[in-house]
Amino acid sequence: MDIESFKADLTNTGYQEVLEKTYAPNQFIETHKHPFRARAVITAGEMTISWGGFARIPRRRYLRNRSR
Fold it and tell me: What is the mean pLDDT of residues 25-48?
């Protein structure tokens, strides 16, 4: 899925705000929660996601957070 299709899908499924974020290599983001189902597409590089004491590098470039 390309970024424009991803954004259109978010808008069509009710997301009111769609953000693009760019992170520096090895940048650490503090532990946080989202009050909505977070979805993301990785367009370059990779991302390690940690939760519940586990860490993983998603194999797919498209991510969907199932929890709220």
Answer: 87
Tell me if residue 26 falls in helix, strand or coil: coil
As given in the structure block, the two tokens for residue 4 are 């424009």
Is 13 domain-assigned?
no
Phi-psi region of 53 (alpha: psi -120 to 50; beta: other; left: phi over 0): left
Domain membership flag for residue 64? yes
Whether the model clears a pTM of 0.90, i.e. scores above it, the answer is no
Is the pLDDT score of 41 beyond 60? yes
Residue 1 lies in a domain: no
| Residues spanned by the domain of 33 | 20-68
The answer to the question of residue 9 being in a domain is: no
